[in-house]
């Protein structure tokens, strides 16, 4: 990207990108078509106003997401074209802050999401997972793996990390599912968000003694020291909680993929040393969300691949497309557990790299290893085409995963 403002190519047409209820791990056909048409496109999504630029090439995605000329903060208050009918961010949300404010907010919870911080809860996470699998084995097949493991495990882990009491975890799960779905309408999603905000406001206020290592305790202490405002702390807590539970849908895709490709499952069973690398490849490959996520606003004219993006234009990047860039990932549509290097961008890039990326990978590794080792004969209890998938979900995943063993 350069500061030059001479357009070398005509602007691409505006393509409508509908909200598709895709199933399994099928790649979005609209996104695939856009990728074929060129590296920079214009799209209109089902909600919001106008159109936005879409950047799909790996190098360009990394450049835009790390370029201060593209602002997240400038999106607040604008009706940028978007997938969901509701506007998830709350005032003070770290996802819509720019450095240096963004850096200050991330610092408040950084200790919980370092490798050391995640390792602190790894043993407890394994214990919670083993308890769930114990129950699964005790009750016997068939079973819904989503209900028994894939949903309760990430909920327990993120709530443990956040400091949400066990008695409130189901309520937190219900709010998150409503926020992450567009099928219930904007009013229902907004009400769920408001209720979660009120809950975390009370929890942050109660954590200002600074004695707890959980996220709410860290945020409460930061508010007490005047490093972040209460509104900012609550916004960050909501974002982390929602992001943490997205693991349910992503690992649902991942396990479904393994159960429908038994040769991959067998490789993981017989070659434990490849598991960590394999998880990275699976995370690269699965379509971990629907359409695109959060937009940015160009603060000045910027050229991307010879296309001028003018100051004030909204811009999306597609991490899904970047993960299939053949210039970076040879044979990108093939799952290769031996792929190395594997610099996927499933957790984002730049200042807004997912704060919980290390945690999410840990959870996926624990779930895959535990299921492969303890239920080596795990398989789908229904034909793959009969697995039900969530409707209107921003994060794609199976509504149920019927299994037997």
Explain this structure.
The protein is α+β, with helices and mostly antiparallel strands and 405 residues long. It has a single domain (14-404), classed as Cytochrome P450 (Cytochrome p450), CATH 1.10.630.10. It has 15 helices and eleven strands. The strands form three sheets. The protein has a six-stranded mixed beta sheet with strand order 1-2-3-9-6-4, with helices on both faces. Strands 5-11-10 form a three-stranded antiparallel beta sheet. Helix 7 (169-179) packs across helix 8. The model is unreliable at 2-7 (pLDDT under 50).
Overall residue-averaged pLDDT value: 91
* Total individual domains: 1
Structural class label = alpha+beta
Q: Tell me the β content.
A: 5-15%
Q: List low-confidence stretches.
A: 2-7
Identify the CATH class.
Mainly Alpha
> How many individual β-strands?
11
Based on CA atoms alone, the radius of gyration comes out at 21 Å
Which properties best describe this structure?
Cytochrome p450, three-stranded antiparallel beta sheet, 11 strands, globular, 15 helices, 405 residues, 46% helix, alpha+beta, single chain, six-stranded mixed beta sheet
Outline of this structure?
This protein is of the alpha+beta class and 405 residues long.
């Amino acid at each position: 990207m350069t500061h030059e403002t001479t357009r070398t190519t005509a602007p691409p047409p505006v393509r409508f990108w509908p909200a598709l209820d895709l199933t399994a791990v099928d790649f979005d056909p609209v996104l695939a078509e856009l990728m074929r048409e060129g590296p920079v496109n214009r799209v209109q999504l089902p909600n919001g106003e106008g159109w936005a630029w879409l950047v799909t090439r790996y190098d360009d995605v990394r450049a835009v997401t790390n370029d201060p000329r593209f602002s997240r903060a400038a999106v607040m208050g604008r009706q940028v074209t978007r997938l969901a009918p509701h506007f998830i961010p709350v005032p003070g949300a770290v996802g819509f802050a720019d450095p240096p404010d963004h850096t200050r907010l991330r610092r408040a919870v950084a200790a919980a999401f370092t490798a050391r911080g995640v390792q602190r809860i790894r043993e407890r996470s394994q214990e919670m997972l083993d308890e769930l699998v114990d129950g699964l084995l005790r009750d016997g097949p068939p079973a819904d793996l989503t209900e028994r493991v894939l949903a309760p495990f990430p909920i327990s882990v993120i709530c443990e990390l956040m400091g949400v009491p066990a008695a409130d975890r189901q309520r937190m799960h219900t709010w998150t599912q409503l926020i992450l779905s567009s099928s219930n309408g904007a009013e229902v999603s907004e009400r769920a968000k408001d209720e979660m905000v009120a809950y975390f406001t009370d929890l942050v206020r109660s954590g200002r003694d600074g004695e707890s290592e959980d996220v709410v305790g860290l945020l409460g202490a930061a508010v007490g020291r005047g490093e972040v405002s209460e509104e900012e702390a609550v916004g960050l807590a909501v974002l982390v909680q929602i992001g943490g539970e997205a693991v349910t849908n992503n690992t649902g895709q991942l396990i479904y993929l393994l159960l429908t490709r038994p040769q991959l499952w067998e490789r993981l069973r017989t070659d434990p040393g490849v598991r960590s690398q394999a998880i990275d490849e699976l995370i690269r490959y699965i379509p971990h969300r629907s359409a695109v996520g959060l937009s940015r606003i160009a603060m000045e004219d910027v050229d991307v691949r010879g296309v001028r993006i003018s100051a004030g234009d909204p811009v999306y990047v597609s991490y899904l497309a970047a993960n299939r860039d053949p210039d970076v990932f040879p044979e990108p549509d093939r799952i290769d557990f031996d792929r190395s290097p594997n610099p996927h961008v499933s957790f984002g890039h730049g200042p807004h790299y997912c704060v919980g990326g290390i945690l999410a990978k840990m959870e996926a590794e624990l779930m895959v290893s535990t299921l492969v080792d303890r239920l080596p004969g795990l398989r789908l209890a229904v034909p793959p085409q009969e697995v039900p998938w969530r409707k209107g979900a921003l994060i794609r995943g199976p509504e149920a995963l019927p299994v037997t063993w």
